[in-house]
Amino acid sequence: MSIKVALIGANGQLGSDIVKHFSQSDRYDLTPLTRAEVDITQPESVNKVLGAQNFDVVINSAAYVRVDDCEDHPQIAFDVNAIGALNIARACRDINALCVYISTDYVFRGSYPCPNNENVFPDPINIYGISKLTGEHLVKQTTERSLILRISSVFGKAGSRGKGGNFVETIIAKAKAGAPLKVVNDMFMSPTYTPDAAQLLDSLLQIGRTGIIHGANRGKCSWYEFATTALKLANIDHPIEPVASSEFPTKAARPMNSALISFHLPLQDNSARRFEMRHWQEALADYIQSRD
What we know:
Elements: E1 3-8, H1 13-23, E2 28-33, H2 43-50, E3 57-60, H3 67-72, H4 74-95, E4 98-104, H5 127-142, E5 146-151, E6 154-155, H6 167-176, E7 182-184, E8 188-189, E9 192-193, H7 194-206, E10 211-214, E11 221-222, H8 223-233, E12 241-243, E13 267-268, E14 274-275, H9 280-291
Parallel strand pairs: 1-2, 1-3, 3-4, 4-5, 5-10, 6-9, 7-12
Antiparallel strand pairs: 8-11, 13-14
Helix pairs in contact: 1-7, 2-4, 4-5, 6-8, 8-9
């Protein structure tokens, strides 16, 4: 019997690849849901959609992700990222479904040089991070069955609807246009390729994992290294100037090191099946090749 899964935020950057990956497997009976079909900020809408079917798993990949805009519109950030998460967690509790909440590296302050593992105390420094951490707490407090998957610096074919594309595409487009490029070299993160995150989520569901898991691709890099690697892989010869983040002041503070690492990977089940997130350079090469 297949697992009945509801995916909220199905047309987002990660959601699109979850749909693609899960739809290829007979393990899942997937119901993709967009904002047109469910408004997570309204409990009546959530209960009407989720309560109507006996879902085994509900994946909440919907989020208000405009980090700077969150500073100006904290109410929207908390309505979507926190209250929306609470509404879904309550519905999951009522139908006894596993609640999967997609979170972020921005729950960390990022003041230490080492990558952040699941045991590092979260201490966000902007409204976006605070709203997502609040969502995490509300999910954990509301339902006993939850999986919180933290990802970071996401890139995938669908781009980010909330941000108008992804970082890789922006860099490539500017390079092809011959525009001067400056990219910060003192902020570090772990890129996350959305097909890999979708496959990880599949593996986590198969072994019944709950709790908090960091699901970024392995390794860390600066935004400058990420940009230069993308252009090299795309065979684009265009200079990028490394600069300090102080040259690009933003309304919302950003963690200087939000790189993620997981104590729980690689996964291994009783059949000795093993899954590990590949290195970000390998994932980026796959992404660049898929654009051709």
